[in-house]
């Protein structure tokens, strides 16, 4: 369980929420485990919230009610979600960098397996007005791939929708470079890719499951411009079951490699 740290409520919205929850709990003479029991959560999660990692809206509403905050916490969480919609993946990316295992289903090549050209093409498609610094975003995404260069790289298992291999993002040259990198990546013992054929049903978005160093499991799901990071066991279990069904319908790794090699030939100039 994370140790209690000093919080400056003026530092950020997250710090303000942390201070609000901590102060309300202490005013009632409750320990963190007491509050956790009242909102059907874990002591670890309450500690994380009080150290600056805000709850999701569901848990926020429960805390609001139990701590008698008059809806203030819920309103702050809504404001946070609306104002930071481009940063919704921040906590997920932080935990992904330290995860022991990563299981993903994706409709596109996941960021940990992208080339700069492919990442740039996707970002340009999502930002037609050029409002963001795409080159800086591309660099940060590629830098995250260094997690595989350490002495204990994470275990990555990807269920990849077949359409990701066939759609031309940027150009055929970019797609060839991407698939060549993908074929190199799956030669590593810690990286596995299974292809979900086009005729199989899929969910309209990505699903990522993390196993953290503590053994805790988390889940992240992302659509076009929205995402949600979950730590509550019930939420994680729901997306674990979704992933398991997709995984069961995917081809094996050997058959998937053959499909990936076949896709490489479809992007010849």
Task: Walk me through the structure.
The chain has helices at 13-27, 32-38, 43-50, 57-66, 72-83, 90-96, 116-126, 134-143, 163-166, 172-185, 233-249, 253-265, and strands spanning 101-106, 155-161, 191-196, 206-211, 217-222, 227-230. Strand 4 (206-211) and strand 5 form a beta hairpin. It has two domains: 13-83, Orthogonal Bundle (434 Repressor (Amino-terminal Domain)), CATH 1.10.260; 87-265, Endonuclease, Chain A (2-Layer Sandwich), CATH 3.30.870. The relative contact order is 0.12. With 269 residues, the protein is α/β, with parallel strands linked by helices. It contains twelve helices and six strands. The model has no long low-confidence stretch (mean pLDDT 90). Helix 2 crosses helix 3, helix 4 runs antiparallel to helix 5 and helix 10 (172-185) packs antiparallel against helix 12 (253-265). It has a six-stranded mixed sheet, sandwiched between helices.
Helix-strand blueprint:
Layout lengths: L12 H15 L4 H7 L4 H8 L6 H10 L5 H12 L6 H7 L4 E6 L9 H11 L7 H10 L11 E7 L1 H4 L5 H14 L5 E6 L9 E6 L5 E6 L4 E4 L2 H17 L3 H13 L4
Parallel strand pairs: 1-2, 2-3
Antiparallel strand pairs: 1-4, 4-5, 5-6
């Amino acid at each position: 369980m994370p140790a209690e740290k000093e919080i400056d409520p003026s530092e950020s919205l997250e710090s303000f929420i942390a201070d609000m929850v901590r102060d309300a709990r202490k005013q009632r003479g409750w320990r963190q485990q007491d509050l956790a029991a009242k909102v059907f959560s874990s002591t670890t999660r309450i500690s994380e919230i009080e150290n600056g990692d805000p709850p999701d809206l569901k848990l926020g509403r429960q805390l609001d009610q139990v701590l008698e905050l008059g809806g203030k916490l819920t309103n702050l969480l809504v404001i946070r979600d609306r104002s930071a919609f481009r940063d919704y993946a921040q906590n997920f990316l932080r935990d992904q960098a330290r995860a022991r295992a990563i299981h993903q289903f994706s409709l596109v090549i996941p960021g940990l397996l992208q080339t700069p050209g492919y990442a740039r093409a996707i970002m340009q498609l999502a930002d037609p007005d050029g409002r963001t610094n795409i080159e800086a975003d591309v660099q940060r995404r590629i830098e995250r791939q260094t997690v595989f260069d350490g002495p204990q790289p994470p275990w990555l298992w990807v269920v990849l929708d077949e359409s990701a291999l066939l759609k031309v993002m940027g150009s055929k040259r970019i797609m060839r470079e991407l698939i060549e990198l993908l074929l190199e990546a799956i030669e590593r013992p810690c990286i596995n890719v299974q292809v979900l054929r086009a005729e199989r049903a899929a969910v309209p978005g990505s699903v990522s499951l993390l196993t953290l160093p503590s053994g805790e499991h988390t889940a992240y799901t992302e659509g076009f411009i929205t995402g949600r990071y979950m730590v509550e066991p019930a939420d994680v279990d729901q997306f674990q079951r979704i992933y398991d069904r997709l995984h069961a319908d995917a081809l094996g790794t050997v058959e998937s490699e053959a499909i990936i090699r076949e896709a490489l030939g479809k992007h010849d100039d």
